[in-house]
Amino acid sequence: MSNRRTFIKDLGALAGMAAFSPEIFAAEPQKLWFEISLAEWSLHKTIFNEKKLTNLDFPVIARKEFGIGIVEYVNQMFKDKAKDTAYLNELLMRCKDNNVKNHLIMIDGEGGLAETDATVRNKAVENHKKWVECAKYLGCKTIRVNSFGKGSAEEVAKAAVDGLGKLGEFAKPVGINVIVENHGGYSSDGQWLSGVMKQINMKNVGTLPDFGNFCVKRSDNSEWGGKCVEEYDRYKGVKELMSYAKGVSAKTNDFDEKGNEAKMDYARLLKIVKDAGFRGIIGIEYEGNVTSEYDGIKATKKLLERVGAMV
């Protein structure tokens, strides 16, 4: 009886403490096994079409609007500023003022690093070098490039090994990673791209598996633009690319009533990523048309946090 009274008395005291301090019994938020970044392409309509934001605003919005402290730039948003130190210093100041970390720059429009014409390919390598130096200046670890080229799968793979290898050699002493996203054409074939990585065999050259970009053939034979007529298995592709991954792109397009991505099994995808031993940065890249960019980014963040805690 004495022990029972003591127990009831202690229980009452704890209940009283909880009434004044409910946080005592609140569960600690579960720490995710990955960090979340925001890819600037998620805001490309707001920046390009609506002209409501600029690249300089991006890190500020990432922190203040979405609570995200790691960012991924798109070179198209500041394509003539790679060597403009005054501009880059302003960008760095805004990052510092908002406690934002620069992670990578996505490079487009500088030529295909897997072009089978050696002169064209070497020109593309040269075009990318300024972005390696820009990434270093901004404190990024990585640039994302494209392995585009025309020819047979074997010919383009051979060219990719050469082009990516040369850029990787330039980036190695600078301390920058060169990574390829599955981004259309042969690069969206997980077996093809992982085979290229195996041949290059460099620590600073790797992949950026994107959950959504697995169209290997379009109606107009372009990397982008035409209707997709052949798609690679996204789950197989992500698994193949994770062996060389130095980042992950969490693509979303639309959501169901429960907040899940409408056409992708995020639990399955994140399990593949985790089982591969990845513990790095997963970037939000919202590309939908139904939900606004701001709401799509928020929905993707909630999805990553919820499913990531379950996996």
Give me a quick take on this structure.
With 311 residues, the protein is α/β, with parallel strands linked by helices. It contains ten helices and ten strands. The strands form two sheets. An eight-stranded parallel sheet has the order 6-5-4-3-2-1-10-9, with helices on one face.
Highlighted features:
311 residues, 8-stranded parallel β-sheet, 10 helices
What does this structure look like?
The chain is of the alpha/beta class. 43% of the residues lie in helices and 15% in strands. The strands form two sheets. Strands 6-5-4-3-2-1-10-9 form an eight-stranded parallel β-sheet, covered by helices on one side. The chain has a two-stranded antiparallel sheet with strand order 7-8. Strand 2 (70-74), helix 4 and strand 3 (101-106) form a beta-alpha-beta unit. The chain is globular, with a radius of gyration of 23 Å. The termini are far apart.
Secondary structure elements and their pairing?
Blueprint: H1 2-20, E1 35-39, H2 44-49, H3 58-66, E2 70-74, H4 85-97, E3 101-106, H5 118-138, E4 142-145, H6 153-171, E5 177-181, H7 190-200, E6 205-208, E7 215-218, E8 228-231, H8 234-241, E9 248-252, H9 266-275, E10 281-286, H10 293-310
Helix pairs in contact: 5-6, 6-7, 7-8
Assembly level: single chain
Number of discrete helical segments: 10
Specify the helix fraction band.
Answer: 40-55%
Poorly predicted runs of 5 or more residues: 14-28
Radius of gyration: 23 Å
